[in-house]
Design a protein that fits this description.
Length: about 80
Amino acid sequence: MDAGREVGLLARKLFPGGMNASADHFDVFSNVRKTRELMNHGAYTIYEAVFLFDGCLVMADILHRGAGGWRGRTEG
C-alpha cells in the first residue's frame, strides 16, 4: 500500500493540475461515475481513474488527454 501511494504521488508530480476521481477506494461505482464526469467536463488529467468494461475493472494511476486522445498509466 505504501509503495502504491508513493507511485501515485510521483505520478502527480509528472502530471500536475489533475483531478482526483477516487473519493473512496471501496466505492467502485462512485469512482466510475466520477471518472466519466471528469472526462465529459473537460478534465485533461485524472488521478485514480476507474472504469468497468465488459465485467473487467480497470484502475489507472494517471489518465491524461493529449493531442492523440486519452492515455493511461498504471503501476506495475
